[in-house]
Specification:
The strands form two sheets. Strands 2-1-3-12-11-4-5-10-8-9 form a ten-stranded mixed β-sheet, sandwiched between helices. Helix 1 crosses helix 10. It starts with 6 loop residues before the first strand and ends with a helix. Helix 1 links the parallel strand 1 and strand 2. The radius of gyration is 20 Å and the shape is globular. It is α/β, with parallel strands linked by helices and 356 residues long. The protein folds into two domains: 203 residues, Isopropylmalate Dehydrogenase (3-Layer(aba) Sandwich); 127 residues, 3-Layer(aba) Sandwich (Isopropylmalate Dehydrogenase), CATH 3.40.718.10. The structure holds 1,4-dihydronicotinamide adenine dinucleotide and magnesium ion (MG).
C-alpha cells in the first residue's frame, strides 16, 4: 500500500526525545524534497511528562480521533522517572497507542553498522542483518487472571497466556511476507514447546500451516533458550525471527544489544493493514542522564524515519536515509560521544542530511 501525501503526527515526548526529533525530521525533510513525497508534519505536545504536569493526564481525551487522521506517528521517547512513575507515563501514552491502534507487529531490525563497535568478537558489517518480529497484543502479556486468599498460606496468583488463531496467524503472515521479500527467504520461529506444553505446540502448529503458503521460504524453529544463545554465538544464521509477545520482547532487546549500542536502534509498532496509524520510534528512552547536553546520538530516531518510509510505501526514500547513515558512520567524522566522537546531536544529524 502506498500512502499518497502522507500525513505524519510528530510527538517528541520527553528528555532526549526533544533533542533527537529535529534530526529525524531533518533527514525526512531531505528525502521529502529529493523524492517529491509530499509528506506533511503536525507537531503535538501530549504523550509527555510536561503535558502531564500542566493537565494532570498524559493525553487529551480526544487523542484517538486526533491521531486517527494521520497515516503514521513519528515518536521520540516518553518518561521522566523523577517527575512521574514510568508506569503512569508509559501506560498513559505508548501502551494506549499499541492497543487502540491495534499495532500488533513490533518490528526491529538487527544490523551491524560500520564504525559501531560490536560487542561480539570478530563480527563485521554484513555478518549481522536480520529482523525480529514480535507479536504485540496478546500471548503472555494478558490481564486474565487474579489473586486469591491474599495474606494467608493458601495465597495464589494466576496469569493466563492468550493465543488466538487470529492473533497468531496474523503475526506469522506478516513475518512470512517479510521473509519472502528478502534475498535469504529464511524464517526462524521462537518456541518452547518442550516446557510450555499447550500454547507453544499450538504456535508450532500454526507455523507449519502458514509455512505451506510460503513454499519458497525456508522455515526452522528453536527453543527460546538456545535461540538466545545463537543470537550471541551465531547471529549470521538469522534473517527473520518471529516470536510471541514475551519471547519477542526479550529477543528484540538482545538483538540490537548484539550490534553495539541501543542509541542507533529503531523500531516500528505497526498495523500492517493501515487501518490505524503505525508508530515509529527509536528503541532508546528519554535518557534523563544526558538530557540537556545535546550529546544524544540521533541515529535511532533517523533510522526510525527510514522504517516509516518503508511502511508508507517509499522504500527508495527509506533506503536513501539508511545509506546516508552508513556512509557517515563509515567516514567516522561527526560522531557523538557514545560512538567515541565529540560531535553534538545536530552535527551528526546535519552530516546525515547532507549525505542524503
Ligand atoms: P534509556 O534508553 O533512556 O537510557 C539508557 C542508557 O543509554 C542511558 O545511560 C542513556 O544515556 C543511554 N542512551 C540512550 N539513548 C541514547 C542516545 N540516543 N545517545 C546516547 N546515549 C543514549 O533507558 P532508561 O534510562 O532505562 O530510561 C529512561 C526513561 O526512558 C524512563 O522513563 C523509561 O521509562 C523511558 N523509556 C522510554 C522508552 C520509549 O519511549 N519507548 C523506551 C525505554 C525507556
Ligand atoms: Mg523491551
Amino acid at each position: 500500500k502506498i500512502f499518497k501525501n502522507p500525513q505524519i503526527a510528530v510527538i517528541a515526548g520527553d528528555g532526549i526525545g526533544k533533542e533527537v526529533m529535529p534530526e529525524g525530521l531533518r533527514a525526512l525533510e531531505a528525502v521529502n524534497k529529493k523524492f517529491n513525497i509530499g509528506m506533511q508534519f503536525d507537531h503535538f505536545d501530549f504523550a509527555s511528562c510536561d503535558y502531564y504536569l500542566k493537565h494532570g493526564k498524559m493525553m487529551p481525551d480526544d487523542w484517538f480521533d486526533t491521531l486517527m487522521q494521520y497515516d503514521a506517528i513519528f515518536f521520540g521517547a516518553v518518561g521522566m522517572p523523577d517527575i512521574l512513575p514510568d508506569h503512569v507515563s508509559l501506560w498513559g501514552s505508548l501502551i494506549q497507542f499499541r492497543r487502540g491502534f491495534d499495532q500488533y507487529v513490533n518490528l526491529r531490525p538487527v544490523r551491524l553498522l560500520p564504525g559501531v563497535p560490536c560487542p561480539l568478537a570478530n563480527r563485521k558489517p554484513g555478518d549481522i542483518d536480520f529482523f525480529v518480529v514480535r507479536e504485540n497484543t496478546e500471548g503472555e502479556y494478558s490481564s486474565v487472571g487474579g489473586k486469591m486468599f491474599p495474606d494467608t498460606d493458601r495465597e495464589f496468583v494466576i496469569q493466563e497466556s492468550i493465543f488466538t488463531r487470529q492473533g497468531v496467524d496474523r503475526i506469522l503472515k506478516y513475518a512470512y511476507d517479510l521473509a519472502q521479500s528478502r534475498p535469504k527467504k529464511h524464517l526462524t520461529s521462537a518456541t518452547k514447546s518442550n516446557g510450555i506444553a499447550i500454547t507453544m505446540p499450538y504456535w508450532d502448529e500454526r507455523v507449519e500451516t502458514m509455512a505451506k503458503q510460503f513454499p519458497e521460504v525456508r522455515t526452522d524453529k528453536y527453543h527460546i533458550d538456545i535461540l538466545a544463545a545463537h543470537f550471541v554465538m551465531n547471529p549470521d544464521r538469522f534473517d527473520v525471527v518471529v516470536a510471541s509477545n514475551l519471547f519477542g520482547d526479550i529477543l528484540s532487546d538482545l538483538g540490537p544489544a548484539c550490534t553495539g549500542t541501543i542509541a542507533v536502534a529503531p523500531s516500528g509498532s505497526i498495523n500492517p493493514e493501515g487501518k490505524f496509524p503505525s508508530l515509529f520510534e527509536p528503541v532508546h528512552g528519554s535518557a534523563p542522564d544526558i538530557y540537556g547536553k545535546m550529546i544524544a546520538n540521533p541515529i535511532g530516531q533517523i533510522w526510525s524515519g527510514s522504517m516509516m518510509l518503508d511502511h508508507l510505501g517509499y522504500p527508495e526514500a527509506g533506503l536513501a536515509i539508511f545509506t546516508a547513515i552508513e556512509k557517515v558512520l563509515a567516514e567516522g567524522k561527526s560522531l557523538t560521544p557514545d560512538l567515541g566522537g565529540s560531535a553534538k546531536t545536530d552535527d551528526l544529524g546535519k552530516a546525515i542530511a547532507a549525505a542524503i
